[in-house]
Design goal:
Layout: H1 2-8, H2 24-39, H3 43-46, H4 54-67, H5 77-82, H6 85-99, H7 114-123, H8 133-146, H9 149-152, H10 154-157, H11 168-181, H12 184-187, H13 193-205, H14 207-219, H15 221-224, H16 233-249, E1 251-252, E2 258-259, H17 271-280, H18 282-297, H19 308-327, H20 329-335, H21 339-345, H22 348-353, H23 355-370, H24 387-407, H25 413-427, H26 429-439, H27 448-470, H28 488-521
Helix pairs in contact: 6-7, 7-8, 8-11, 8-13, 11-16, 14-16, 14-18, 16-19, 18-19, 19-20, 23-24, 23-25, 23-26, 24-25, 24-27, 25-26, 25-28, 26-28, 27-28
Length: 522
Amino acid sequence: MKEIFAAESDPDDYDYGNDRYNDLQFQENVEHELKSFNVSWDAKILCQAKILTLDEMIQRVESLLSDLTPSLIHLGNKEWREWDAGNQLVSLTLELLLLLGKKGFSSLGAKFIKPLTVLRDIAVDSSRSCVGGLDTYLKLIQTLLESKASMVGDYASKNDIEEGELSPARCLGLSSLADLCSNQNIVMASSKVGIKAKVKGIVMECVDELVECVAFVRSKDKNLKCVDDGSTTSLRVSTMISQILDFMTGIQSSLDCSSKGSHNTVANISASEARGFLQSGLFRELILLYVCIETAQDNSQLVPNTSKLHFMVVQQLLRTILVLSSQSEILRSYVARVPEFTNFIYSDDFDHVHVAEAILWHALLANVTSTNKVPQMRMKGVVMVSSSELIKRSKHNFLKLCAKVVDDKSDKVSVVEFLQLCNCCHQIPFVAECWSSVMRSDLVSGDVRAVICDILKALPQEITEAKMKLENKDVPPEKLHSVSMHSASTTASVRKGCKHLLSFLEMHEHSSQAAQCSSKID
């Protein structure tokens, strides 16, 4: 039967007129039409102004970004790799940057960073490490910091010189890197050594771009002056740079030098990283940025700034420089030779405004100058202070601070300064060594152990007062020693700090005695 029907349906028995099966030109025309039809559905072509009006294009872009949510993270690792989702998000981020500054697209607002946000969430997710999200994210950050017009467009790559603002691409790259360096999923886990090495690597690769960011905001006077809310470009850049360097040093300058993660995960900057900061000019720019911000507030003296946020950022920047200097010999030798900075450190106003920092800086610089590695240059306008004078000032200010903690009935700042000093010494071994060396000096009379013990003796009374206040009982006037130790947590912190300081003194005293015995034996 099949053979019969096949014979009956033989194509040769029919006349089709023109033989289209053998018409090659016809086939080429059909393929061309199909290709044009398929290409017309491409996203880039659909977004071209030749096909869509401007309003239609903006509507479609906003709709696309509205649908782009972290739900994409629920894609399996296999699907993420198959779809090449990471590179697609990178391309979308760069395409959106090209739209910045164009008419009508200002309505996008913060939506244009949504692809970057999704990629960031993948990068910090330890369960998605196999998809390479972190590598893709770091590469995008580097592209944004480089801020090349060929990649992000003319508008997104140019600094606003008149307003003193960094380019949109560089702002986005700097904030993304700072956010990554402060992400708890990365900084808290000791098992992520490989991930930390990758992040540190991208910081060192982009160090020249970081220098350009700091140098730009420092060169603009209007960036340095404090406004009511403290939201100047210099403050934002300073905060982000400090967050990045906190990741490198393992110490949080914004939290009174507490360690990032467990104490075992604290890792100092390496010698090569310190050289990179110095040779690139980043360390110098950081120092000069601090000097410029302080100078811009008042040309005559250092005073607490009108904005509390501004004052906190300045202190954070100062602590960042202190941590870097304490972790690298070449950096602390360099900072001691920057007259613009040392003039501030040696001023009486600095002792008054930054009490804890002044004590520690004088102790550190006394250590540097005593080694005779810093040439004593006589220059006009440069304040010269000897090592012995720095030791005297550091010890005198510490004894004065301890006396305020015990005796002052209204000053809460003294306890805060005391806790900051204790935290710095606890987390930075070299600072603790410099401090204990100064405190054991005979150049200034006064028993440091005795005044610390006086603070400890005052603590039980403060606990009693706190209990009476909680029980709504009247506190006798003679027992009103309000030195900001009103809470049990603050009292415990002060007690812990005192014990740390006493242990530092004892430990370094034993080390000094052991060294002297060893030298006598030799």
